[in-house]
Design a protein that fits this description.
The chain is mainly alpha-helical. The protein has a domain of about 110 residues: Cytochrome P450 (Cytochrome p450), CATH 1.10.630.10. Helix 4 packs parallel to helix 8. The chain binds protoporphyrin IX containing FE (HEM). The site of protoporphyrin IX containing FE has 20 residues, from helix 4 and helix 8.
């Protein structure tokens, strides 16, 4: 996506992130999505006419055994990479930083041993991940899970955020503990066929910001009581802003 158009995207992403707040916000979201849809379709048409060395051109010109993507599939793929690639990563940066600043023992452990960084971000994803309450599914046939039949055609919300605090799987699930074993993967990036394609990139982004902030600001701390932080209304969990003291 051309860098000059980043503001257009950021505005749409911001509105989309808040779509569940109220009716007025829902209408704003529809308008923003419609405008963005026109923009993406134009972008696809431009890449179709003159391919560039970028992902959209690759998707448009994809060949092989598979059927080419339809126009609607292309648009939704571009949307999910753009929106899915931005908002959850942005919010996990805040959630991870907040979890560390609220648990001084864990922050001290990380400062003492920077090799814990990957595990710390993984734990932040489990403890306070941005994808809440979970993932949407649509039952294509009757499915039985734990003795309950989910009828064909039902919309299902899979509560991955609850699974990430399942006491049968996680000892002390409500404790933020960056020394949990690396094998104990959460469902924060999904599972199976649709597992997040950007998982490693996202973790790298969050790790980079946290590592840089901690290195640059040895006295980094919250500037307000945690109770005063305001959570965004919407599908991607995160706070509106985190006032910090650095000196
Ligand atoms: C902290 C950041 C992120 C989180 C928590 C996250 C979470 C998720 C989750 C839970 C899914 C599974 C959705 C489902 O099963 O219905 C998913 C899928 C996906 N994510 Fe991410 N994601 C993040 C960052 C990214 C980034 C950086 C990109 C791309 C640059 C990305 C692209 C995608 C795409 C394209 C899918 C769909 C995969 C498919 O349906 O096969 N995500 N993500």
């Amino acid at each position: 996506m051309p860098t000059d158009d980043a503001d257009l995207f950021r505005t749409a992403a911001c509105v989309v992130g808040g779509y569940m707040a109220d009716d007025e916000a829902a209408l704003r979201t529809v308008a923003a999505l419609e405008a963005f849809d026109v923009y993406v379709r134009d972008l696809i048409a431009a890449r179709r006419a003159a391919p560039q060395p970028d992902l959209i051109s690759d998707l448009v010109t994809a060949e092989g055994d598979e059927q080419p993507l339809t126009e609607d599939e292309l648009v939704s793929m571009v949307d999910i990479v753009l929106f899915g690639g931005y908002e959850p990563s942005a919010q996990l940066i805040g959630n991870a930083l907040l979890a560390l600043l609220q648990h001084s023992d864990q922050l001290a452990a990380l400062r003492a041993d920077p090799t814990l960084l990957t595990a710390a971000v993984e734990e932040a994803l489990r403890y306070d991940g941005p994808v809440t309450p979970g993932l949407s599914r649509y039952a294509l046939e009757d499915v039985e899970i734990g003795g309950t039949t989910i009828p064909k055609g039902s919309y299902v919300m899979v509560g991955t955020a609850a699974a990430n605090r399942d006491p049968e799987h996680w000892p002390d699930p409500g404790t933020f503990d960056i020394t949990r074993p690396a094998t104990a993967r959460s469902l924060g990036f999904g599972h199976g066929l649709h597992y997040c394609v950007g998982a490693r990139l996202a973790a790298l982004e969050v790790e980079t910001v946290i590592a840089t902030a901690l290195r640059r600001y040895p006295r980094l701390r919250l500037a307000v009581p945690a109770e005063d932080l305001v959570y965004r209304q919407g599908s991607v969990r995160g706070v509106r802003e985190i006032p910090l003291r650095v000196g």
